[in-house]
Amino acid sequence: MSDSQDLKNFTENALVEWLDQYGAAPYRAGQILRWIYQRGAGSFSQMTDLSKDFRRSLSEQLVISNLNTEQVQASEDGSRKYLFRLKDGHHVESVLIPERDHWTLCISSQVGCAMGCAFCLTGRMGWVRNLEPSEIVNQVCAVRNDLSNPSALTNIVFMGMGEPLANYSSVIQAIRTLVGPNGLQFSSRRVTLSTAGLASKLDDLGQAVTVNLAVSLNAADNETRNKLMPINRTYPIEMLLSACRRFPLPSRRMITFEYVLIAGVNDRPADAEHLAKLLRPLRAKINLIPFNPYEGCDFEKPSENAILTFQKVLMDRHYTAIVRHSKGVDIGAACGQLGSRA
Ligand code: SF4
Q1: How many angstroms separate the alpha carbon of residue 103 from the centre of ligand 1?
Q2: For the residues of 209-263, what is the DSSP string, one character each?
Q3: CB neighbours (10 Å) of residue 144?
Q4: Which residues, given as ranges, of the chain have pLDDT below 50?
């Protein structure tokens, strides 16, 4: 049925209410959600602990969606880029990244992105549309199904296409499904949301879910950040960092600040000193990501010496500062390079 609702777009509460019209007890909602997220059921006929009549009524009115995997590209470094086709023909990408003893999946929250960060290929596409909660969660379901050991996929990062806080309600719902007891059961310690700095939404986010926060900072002064990230004109650094200070962090957790190092733009030792001062009031660690040039971009990769000097300035000031070379450069899966074909 074309007007069927997607079961994966229901919150558990909404499903309880929806089922009530059939006189089904509230516990049935959790039972159905566990079938699809924990036992991988792709149809109601598999839900053998529901009566046949009930299954038939469900299948007449609900669909259990999946994403169509159009392409999987494998990188020399072990990462894999998945290209998914959405029901309206648009595409999104997810990147599976190998760690020492587990996988991390970088997922998308929008088709394209409206933030227009100067160093980002996705930003050049502009914003096309928000993803539905089901389309966010289905990236995880599809990749998990593709793994020989699905339980090795333990970490999820919202760092793919799009600004997650600009698709707030769908992303919150997707996070609840990722970590929920009747959902995919990821540990909330292992789910990270990365934002370009939509400061006005950070308070809401901290109230709504427990999640790791990463902030794409990329500059230590407003003049440079205005040039790199137009969002900074609305939420300048001071406003962003005061929202970060208010963000409720569980004990011993820190906010990760991502800093794409670009030659001659933000990679001087003075920038590192400024950054160290700026982050002093926060529980912060810093990921330094050397910029990966792509065709038609105006920026260059920093020298190895500039990267190491920048890192040393931060480490001398007692920060954890890790240089993270992007994975999947050879398959266009590096940070900020997703989505050349939405
Ligand atoms: S870096 Fe992130 S927020 Fe900025 S344009 Fe790219 S996808 Fe959007």
Answers
A1: 23
A2: ---EEEEE---SSHHHHHHH-THHHHS-HHHHHHHHHHS-PPTT--EEEEEEE-T
A3: 19
A4: 1, 341-342
For ligand 1, pick from 117, 291, 340 the residue to mutate: most ligand atoms within 8 Å of CB. 117
Any ligand 1 atom below 6 A from CB of 7: no
335 has catalytic annotation: yes
- Quick one: angle between helices 237-246 and 269-279, nearest 10? 40
Residue of 122, 128, 131, 215 to test ligand 1 pocket, by largest number of atoms within 8 Å of CB? 122
Q: Are strands 153-158 and 255-261 parallel, antiparallel or unpaired?
A: unpaired
In degrees and rounded to multiples of 5, residue 172 shows phi and psi of -60, -45
Interval 12-24: pLDDT, tens: 999 999 999 889 9
Phi-psi region of 135 (alpha: psi -120 to 50; beta: other; left: phi over 0): alpha
